[in-house]
Amino acid sequence: MAVSKHQGIRYLFGDGSRLVFRLSGTGSVGATIRVYIEQYEKDSSKTGRDSQDALAPLVDVALKLSKMQEYTGRSAPTVIT
Description:
- The chain is an alpha+beta fold.
- It is 26% helix and 27% strand.
- It has one domain (2-72): Alpha-D-phosphohexomutase, C-terminal domain (TATA-Binding Protein, 2-Layer Sandwich), CATH 3.30.310.50.
């Protein structure tokens, strides 16, 4: 885990995957929580998979680490890009 002051929290994993959590907006009330999830895949036969399916295990890790539902009351994102 790495902390960049006022920029968010970044988790780096041994396999090259990473999670980044940061606030986006002008203040702490009504701000958007952005979660970036990246995974390295060395098997080229798996690179065409649907992103949501491929990243599902990391999404689970991100939700457990952040306790997102506990803190926000949300069980699903409002935007996925």
